[in-house]
């Protein structure tokens, strides 16, 4: 089995280099001694994670919407789920919109001036869907984050971005700030020259739902 793991790690390492380290999953939780990742890290295919016997890591995959809780042993990040060795793993399918990540990957290579997506008031945007009422917004730089509902007037949040309010220095969590949006609404989020649109699922849950289902990347 160790030889198999080694061979897979080597093969995945080559694939990962060719894929230019494109993130395939996000680390939603880390408990205990875990080598290789930290909370809210993006991880690419081929990443090796080593866990102490009782340590756990929670990985959520962007393509498959699988949320894995891995305890102990060794995990190798795949494209849709992890390869594990001497570990316990629980896998749950969660609600997430894969187009949210795909859109962000395309926009990552564009200049800030081209990231705007104009949406007229009241228009239902062709935008990714979030499955939590409290988004986790990945911000780049400082300034003022503005989240505004565009299908119905009157709901608007203006949030000065301060380092002490961010998770890992770049994520603003509405749940941590005890803020909630409205189920079924369509919103824009903007910070400086970056702007994106998203929708809230009508059945979205309140509070700290799985991050993969409420992540907005600016």
Short summary of the structure?
This protein is mainly beta and 218 residues long.
CATH architecture grouping of the largest domain? Sandwich
Tell me about the biggest sheet? 7 strands, antiparallel
Roughly what is the average pLDDT, rounded to an integer? 83
Radius of gyration: 18 Å
Element layout with pairings:
Blueprint: H1 2-18, E1 23-31, E2 34-35, E3 42-44, E4 48-61, E5 66-76, E6 83-85, E7 88-93, H2 98-108, E8 129-132, E9 136-138, E10 143-149, E11 156-161, E12 171-173, E13 186-191, E14 194-205, E15 215-217
Describe the structure.
- The protein is built from two helices and 15 strands.
- It is mainly beta.
- It folds into two domains: 92 residues, no CATH class; 120 residues, Immunoglobulin-like.
- The strands form three sheets. Strands 1, 2, 3, 4, 5, 6 and 7 form a seven-stranded antiparallel β-sheet that branches.
- The chain is elongated, with a radius of gyration of 18 Å.
């Amino acid at each position: 089995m160790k030889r198999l793991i080694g061979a897979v790690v080597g093969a995945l390492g080559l694939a990962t280099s060719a894929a230019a380290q494109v993130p395939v999953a996000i680390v939603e939780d880390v408990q205990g001694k875990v080598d290789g990742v930290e909370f809210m890290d993006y991880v690419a295919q081929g990443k090796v994670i080593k866990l102490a016997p009782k340590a756990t890591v929670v990985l959520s995959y962007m393509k498959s919407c699988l949320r894995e809780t891995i305890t102990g042993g060794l995990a190798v990040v795949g494209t849709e789920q992890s390869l594990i060795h001497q570990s316990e793993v629980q896998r749950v399918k969660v609600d997430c919109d894969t187009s949210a990540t795909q859109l962000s990957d395309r926009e990552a290579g564009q200049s800030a001036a081209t990231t705007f997506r104009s949406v007229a008031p009241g228009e239902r945007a062709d935008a990714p869907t979030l499955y939590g009422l409290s988004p986790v917004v990945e911000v780049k730089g400082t300034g003022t984050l503005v989240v505004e509902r565009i299908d119905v007037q009157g709901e608007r949040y203006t949030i000065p971005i301060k380092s002490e309010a961010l998770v890992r220095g770049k994520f603003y969590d509405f749940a941590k700030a005890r803020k909630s949006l409205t189920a079924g609404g369509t919103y824009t989020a903007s910070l400086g020259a970056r702007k994106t649109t998203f929708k809230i699922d009508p059945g979205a849950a309140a509070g700290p739902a799985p991050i993969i289902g409420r992540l907005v990347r600016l």
